[in-house]
Amino acid sequence: MRSRNxxxxxxxxxxxxxxxxxxxxQSLVFILTGKRRRRRHLVYVQGHEMWLTIGEFETLSExxxxxxxxxxxxxxxxxTIVCRIRHEIDLACSRPGVRVNLIETxxxxxxxxxxxxxxxxxxxxxxxxxxxGFLNDETIKTILHAIGEVKQI
Length: 153
Fold this sequence. Notes:
The protein is built from five helices and eight strands; from the N terminus they run αβββαβααβββαβ. The protein has helices at 11-27, 54-69, 79-93, 98-102, 137-146; strands spanning 30-37, 40-45, 48-52, 75-76, 103-105, 110-113, 120-122, 148-149. A five-stranded mixed beta sheet has the order 3-2-1-7-8. The termini are far apart. It is 41% helix and 22% strand.
């Protein structure tokens, strides 16, 4: 009698699956999540955790939305908040100067993301932000529709 194929994986296969997910996470420039704690929102930047205030999270989400909806991705935003996001990116990546490559300055207080939409992901829990008042609902819907979902590691 044949044994049934149960979907148990060997430790080696599990390690390979985890390594594949980590590689995907590190290949994405930004991963937006719905996780919140201590009045901060979790975003991953190049595979590193970055906790942003609501203002910073809103601004980054607007940059993502502009990247999705316009050919240039340029959007007018507060220079101060963008500066704080750039600082958080440098801290998260432990390398000064990364921020300049990820958020570009247009003219004055215009900014854009340097990455393509395909280099941005979102976790399933990003969907939890709908109707919570953290972000504009149109921004959330645009991101949900255009950005691919990635599974947690």
